[in-house]
């Protein structure tokens, strides 16, 4: 071992520390390096403790929110320990960014990933072997390249950092199969400490990370999820009343600037129009032209817009410290997403409100999307059984099965992913040989379970902040109540007025009680089916909420064990008080009253051509955008052929349409388009942008 190479960089003196022993660094020297090498005055919360543990050579699992400064927690210890730190990171963009930052600070950082010239990668290997690097960043798929892990093992790193470690867990939201093999390669690179970093890891994901990496004894640092200045309110409000309530809350200038998260574009535009009567407001979603989106973002940042009503696409580039209120007008799909979004409030540390409006109807919207995105096993099975060892085109198959296009392609995609179908680049399909049913059911159940956790959160009887902190795995901190949320401090929201039901409403209320009588409870889905058709979902939403509040009906968590796995769902149960209600009687119950007349008709939808979730459809494209869509299609066909995968796995038809509609100019804009996650943007982003530029 070439001990000379491992000079200690924090005091400039050459030591004979080997890469694997842990140098002693007291807190004064940590502080000194923080300012002299990283240019920071002081440690942020928890950074010092984490750095010390890493310097001491412990394996670590670090779960801290985005922006809390996790990178420093491996970078500083790496410098103190001397030698080269190996950093595994899933996104080329992240690697490039971190590498550039470190080099700008005067460190010697190199990277190896598929986006680089061979010569650069070769040089990085040479530098690594010569021990002249402080940091070597690699993308996980590098480890699949023959000889590469062996090369790394020739010169053991001083520290191994695994960024975005949740990608290793199949329970994580962006599972990357390439991360799976990491655990296999680590032993050859040891005994360097392994530091796994992530912003989102529920306890199940945490366990998975530790197991996959083979570091069961790792010290866990799970911190920083509590936000002391946020008052979280969860409010049951029937859907039609939400826009007015939003307007009422935001009429107070002290509650602005604000972000309102809406579930779909149409809703975003409706609410923006309503709010514009009070203060400068704009809608923001992926369906808007780029220049409009840019200008909304800039105006909001600059303070000329008070409120933005956004779909999930908003916030990527938002760095506004004084947001006073974040409102959700629908239930989010996951608690991770919800936490990220409310986290945009009060970055300046001043008191801020977050309000989540929900009702029974939200469950149905989510059911709709979940059923669309995860079709029933029977649908997949129907296609599976129509497949044969002889290939047939997907179009033929679809016509033969007489299936609607979108449902068909969703099901084929799932079947393909889980191994029940083989599809080539030209859309020729044959029957697959893998046990797709188990794996598909697992995935779709997981998605449903994530939403069940959101339901549980809104119906929970505990401090809201504590519930979130607990969800993220900080069990210790979860014992502390926030004192600000609607549970800790009830009565902070007094926006709601109440009224008696009309005769017609009374009949609806009785119909629900009757449906539940003599049952052990019905899943909400079943209940809807049992009721007369005249009861629309808005009514049901309203009535069920009122019956629950008044104690006649309880909505409970229930579970169902299938193939050894527990599936959570919710059911409505008649309470003893509900059972005593005499059919047809007028009984004691109040319905929420809207501030403005409830019968205000919703704005009629202007564009009939919009798909159900508001995504643009082909007929909405301008002639020019259609040409772009065609070139995107041609490009996709070529990609599919090159990669040997079916075209829909490259990009969906609807995503192509959305790209042509939005005509993105930058990576960031591309990221805002639904259907384009980080992985796709990374793989195809540059090519797509080229096409958009050239078209
Ligand atoms: P994370 O990975 O947790 O999302 P980063 O490591 O990217 O966050 O850090 C977020 C930002 O905080 C970066 O701009 C970083 O330079 C800055 N930062 C980190 N630690 C400190 C510190 N002790 N003092 C000031 N700024 C810091
Ligand atoms: Mg990070």
Can you describe this structure?
This protein has 695 residues and is α/β, with parallel strands linked by helices. The protein has five domains: 220 residues, 3-Layer(aba) Sandwich (Rossmann fold); 153 residues, Rossmann fold (3-Layer(aba) Sandwich), CATH 3.40.50.300; 74 residues, Orthogonal Bundle (Arc Repressor Mutant, subunit A), CATH 1.10.10.10; 94 residues, Orthogonal Bundle (Arc Repressor Mutant, subunit A); 77 residues, Orthogonal Bundle (DNA polymerase, domain 1), CATH 1.10.150. It contains 28 helices and 21 strands. The strands form five sheets. It has a seven-stranded parallel sheet with strand order 3-4-2-5-6-1-7, sandwiched between helices. Strands 8-13-12-9-11-10 form a six-stranded parallel sheet, with helices on both faces. Strands 14-16-15 form a three-stranded antiparallel sheet. The longest helix has 24 residues. The termini are far apart. The N terminus is likely disordered. The structure holds adenosine-5'-diphosphate and magnesium ion (MG).
């Amino acid at each position: 071992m070439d001990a000379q190479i491992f000079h200690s960089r924090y005091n400039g003196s050459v030591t004979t520390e080997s890469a694997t022993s842990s140098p002693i660094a007291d807190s004064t020297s940590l502080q000194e390096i923080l300012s002299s090498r990283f240019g920071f005055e002081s440690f942020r919360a928890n950074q010092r403790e984490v750095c010390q543990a890493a310097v001491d050579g412990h394996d670590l699992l670090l779960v801290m929110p985005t922006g809390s400064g996790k990178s420093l927690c491996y970078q500083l210890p790496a410098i103190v320990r001397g030698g080269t730190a190996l950093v595994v990171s899933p996104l080329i963009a992240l690697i490039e960014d971190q590498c550039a930052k470190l080099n700008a600070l005067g460190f010697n950082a190199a990277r190896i990933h598929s986006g680089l010239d061979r010569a650069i990668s070769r040089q990085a290997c040479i530098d690594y072997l010569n021990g002249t690097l402080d940091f070597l960043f690699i993308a996980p798929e590098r480890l699949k390249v023959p000889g590469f892990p062996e090369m790394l093992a020739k010169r053991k790193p001083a520290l191994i950092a695994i960024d975005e470690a949740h990608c290793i867990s199949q329970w994580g939201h962006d599972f990357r199969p390439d991360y799976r093999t990491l655990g296999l390669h680590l032993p050859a690179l040891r005994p360097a400490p392994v530091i796994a970093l992530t912003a989102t890891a529920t306890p199940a994901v945490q366990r998975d990370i530790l197991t996959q990496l083979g570091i069961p004894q790792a010290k866990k640092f799970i911190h920083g999820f509590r936000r002391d200045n946020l008052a979280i309110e969860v409010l049951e409000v029937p859907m039609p009343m939400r826009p007015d309530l939003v307007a009422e809350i935001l009429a107070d200038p002290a509650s602005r600037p604000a972000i309102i998260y809406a579930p779909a574009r149409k809703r975003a535009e409706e609410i923006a129009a309503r709010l514009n009567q009070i203060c400068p407001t704009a809608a923001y979603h992926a369906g808007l032209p780029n220049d409009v989106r840019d200008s909304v973002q800039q105006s909001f940042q600059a303070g000329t817009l008070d409120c933005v009503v956004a779909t999930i696409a908003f916030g990527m580039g938002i760095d506004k410290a004084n947001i006073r209120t974040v409102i959700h007008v629908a239930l989010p799909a996951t608690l991770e997403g919800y936490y990220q979004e409310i986290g945009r409030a009060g970055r300046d540390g001043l008191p801020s409100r977050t309000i989540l409006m929900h009702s029974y109807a939200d469950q149905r919207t989510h059911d709709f999307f979940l059923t669309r995105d995860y079709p029933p096993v029977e649908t997949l099975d129907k296609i599976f059984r129509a497949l044969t060892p002889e290939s047939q085109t997907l179009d033929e198959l679809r016509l033969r099965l007489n299936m609607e296009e979108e449902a068909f392609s969703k099901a084929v995609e799932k079947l393909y992913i889980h191994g029940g179908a083989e599809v080539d680049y030209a859309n020729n399909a044959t029957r697959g040989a893998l046990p797709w049913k188990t794996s598909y059911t697992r995935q779709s159940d997981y998605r449903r379970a994530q939403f069940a956790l959101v339901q549980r959160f809104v119906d929970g009887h505990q401090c809201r902040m504590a519930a979130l902190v607990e969800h993220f795995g900080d069990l210790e901190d979860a014992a502390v109540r926030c004192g600000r949320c609607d549970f800790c401090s009830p009565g902070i929201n007094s926006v709601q007025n109440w009224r008696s039901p009309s005769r017609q409403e009374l009949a609806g209320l009785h119909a629900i009680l009757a449906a539940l009588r003599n049952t052990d409870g019905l899943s909400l889905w079943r209940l809807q089916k049992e009721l007369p058709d005249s009861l629309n979902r808005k009514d049901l939403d309203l009535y069920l909420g009122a019956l629950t509040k008044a104690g006649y009906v309880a909505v409970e968590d229930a579970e169902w064990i299938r193939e050894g796995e527990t599936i959570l769902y919710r059911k409505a149960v008649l309470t003893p008080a509900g059972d005593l209600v005499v059919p047809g009687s007028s009984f004691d119950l109040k319905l929420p009253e809207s501030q403005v007349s409830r019968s205000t008709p919703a704005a009629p939808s202007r564009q009939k051509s919009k798909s159900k979730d508001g995504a643009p459809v082909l007929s909405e494209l301008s002639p020019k955008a259609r040409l772009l869509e065609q070139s995107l299609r041609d490009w996709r066909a070529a990609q599919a052929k090159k990669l040997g995968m079916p075209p829909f796995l490259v990009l969906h038809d609807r995503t192509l349409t959305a790209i042509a509609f939005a005509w993105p100019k930058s990576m960031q804009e591309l990221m805002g388009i639904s259907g384009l996650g980080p992985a796709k943007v990374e793989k195809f982003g540059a090519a797509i942008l080229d096409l958009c530029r050239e078209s």
